[in-house]
Amino acid sequence: MLTDLSLQDPLRFNRRTPPCAVVIFGANGDLTKRKLMPALYRLAFEGRLAPGFAVLGMSRTAMSDDDFRGQMRTSVAKYLEDSPFDEDVWRSFAQGLYYTAGDVMDSEAYQRLGTRLAQIGHERQTGGNVLFYLSTSPSQYATIAEGVGAAGLARSLGWRRIIIEKPFGHDLDSAKELNFRLQQVFDESDIYRIDHYLGKETVQNILAFRFGNGIFEPLWNRRYVDHVQITAAESIGVEGRGGYYQEAGALRDMIQNHLLQVMATVAMEPSATFSPDAVRDERAKLLRSIRVMKPEEVPANAVAGQYGPGRVGGQPVPGFREEKGVDPESQTETYVAATFFVENWRWAKVPFYIRTGKHLPKRVSEIAIRFRSAPLAVFRNTQGENTETVPNLLILRIQPEEGISLKFVSKRPGAGMTLRPVSMDFNYGSSFGERSPSAYETLLLDAISGDATLYTRQDMVEASWTAVTPILDYWRTQKFAFPNYAPGTWGPAAADELLARQGHQWRRP
Amino acid sequence: MTPALPAVKPDRLLHELAELWTTMGKPSTEADADAVESRGILRACSLTLIVITDERDDAMALAETLAHLMREHPCRAIVVRVSDAAETLSARVFAQCWKPFGQSIQICCEQVELTVSLGRIADIPSIVSPLAAPDLPRVVWFRSASVGQAADAGALLDLGDKLIFDSALKGAPAFADLRSLAASNLIVGDLAWTRITKLRELIAQLLDGHDLRQHSEVVIGYSGGDAGPEARYLQAWLRNVLQHASVDLRRLDAEGCGQMKSLRIEPDLDIRLQSNCAEYKSGILSQRANFADGSDFTLLSEELKIMQHDPVYERALYRMTPWTHAPGMQF
What we know:
The complex is a heterodimer. By secondary structure, chain A is α/β, with parallel strands linked by helices. Chain A has 14 helices and 16 strands. Chain A has helices at about 30-45, 65-80, 85-95, 105-125, 140-150, 170-185, 200-210, 240-265, 275-290, 300, 430, 440-450, 460-475, 495-500; strands at about 20-25, 55-60, 95-100, 130-135, 160-165, 190-195, 225-235, 300-305, 310, 315, 335-340, 350-355, 365-370, 395-400, 405-410, 420-425. In chain B, strands 1, 2, 3, 4, 5, 6, 7 and 8 form an 8-stranded mixed β-sheet that branches. The two termini of chain B are about 25 Å apart.
């Protein structure tokens, strides 16, 4: 309730953000240059940051504040997407950029960091609020958190939060160990595990679609839904990330985190409120309800693929094993198709098919919900035969051409009852032409404001590792006949067979 | 008796709109026709925007504003051009289309244009009402204030769920009239108020967390003979939120037409205003904040996002000092 003394105008003002300093470990790295700094600049451009906002970059490279500002200016100008670069805004934003060199393995570096933070806090009036952003190798996460804690920087009069990027461990045990070490320094409520997929506007829109409308939720269950397909296809290969990808693989890189989170968003129960913990409780509950496969069930429910050499668009494409940094005998999967079941009353026996892969025909991420067919085909064609019923399909498009489509049948004009599938489209871009914030803008702003709704929590991370662990364990014992799909195709034939066994087939997006 | 003019029939216009879509939606090739998922045109509409404008106003500028606006707020736009000509009543329909970058579909919005003489204003509601998109909000934007002086102008008020005026226009309704409209349960917007959103937001950010009782004096500096509606709105808002402070308007020089130049909030906040930005000093912090341009598009876009009573605006409106360009609209 607004009082006369309130300065706020919620209908017109952007959400308030408190003043703070963001400390970026790995400030000289690619993520900082390509994503974090452009996102922060864009927030400054839109006036979303508090006046005393500051960034303190830290990495091993020796640099002055001015060198850092110059380097960040070049990056922002280069990587800023769909926004103009404004020299005046930059000048003002750059006043709040600072840098300190230091090795994260060196305890003295954290003491220097503390001294610098205190000085910046005074200059910029940040109120002691600090957000630590770990844009480093995952193997350094625990060490950095412990360094911050040992230097007494994890507690102050203001708030202290930490953001880490995926992967959160490389299996269940390492994820638990990482969580344990982080929690020795920070409260779980101050640990923000970023999953940029959840920051996408269209993923958030799934919640609005499901719980902001009254007509869909009654259909959202095993009685009406036949199966769900979640696709995250990339048309490119590993693009210079061969070394990393060889260790990770598609199951760890995409399914364990992003796609299981998307599945949880599609299948979770409505939360009582839209508070961060209420929403995350429901997501976590869903992830815990995913049926854990027995080893002998893995072959029938999960398919691994790896692309070989081929041609796409008239150009030769090297196979995964020919990529730089990749073992020529690599057994790493660049494609996964898997079937998951959710063991609760709403979804019992409804298959959730998830697939992701590199070098597929197009870049597309979508969720397709296939409804059960009409129970009786009452329409007959001109020969007097029943026409086949066509199941309704609801497609939630995450990217590109974000939106929602509903496929249903309609009578073809003219004599006779001939039916034809048609599509009713909602296009995000046409109804809301305004620019959507990037996932990093949304997530950074949320972390600064203390809103963890779109971040993953320890129990969610562990539940999703639990869901994929049997597949990882089983695959470790196998020798695959890789490569098994050509670039520019929809993956190995075994993926089609996976669905065919259930009488289903993959949608071609 | 009014002489007979060719009638403008809403049914006919609706039929033309339907035909427009049928024609545009026809596949251009046989391959398109065969493709089940063929995507040609997407019809987009989230509200009806009725624009009342003077025929003498810059038609190109309005077309540009609407074209931009439709990308953010796809709507059925009904532009009513009020003409000085003795007897005029005509209409045409067309579509505004664009293809978002990198997408395969073309997005189109409908537009209806009516030209009507001042003496025929009473005919507008019966034409425009049936043309409004069903079940969607209707907004009337009085882009020109001159129509308000026509005898039957009051009939236009029933066309919208929300009415948008601009107090900075000559002939705009007085604040007292806006208050009456708001009190009669209509949603009222004033672009003069919209122009100060970013400044108010900056002030709110800078004073956030302060004990507001420490601010005892506020001075809003302006240039020109009389403070404009924006300065007066800001004064009213500050009086509401800083109840322990005196909030005064101070003329800084004689040049100009009442635009705000500066703001001082005791004890330590100084803001210097330029056209699209503000430079401020608060304690040891000295920075610059960029404001969006004050184009019709930016202002309208903000107003179209608010389709409910705006309590902060209405409270400021009730605090406004009497001020108006004379003569005001006759609503």
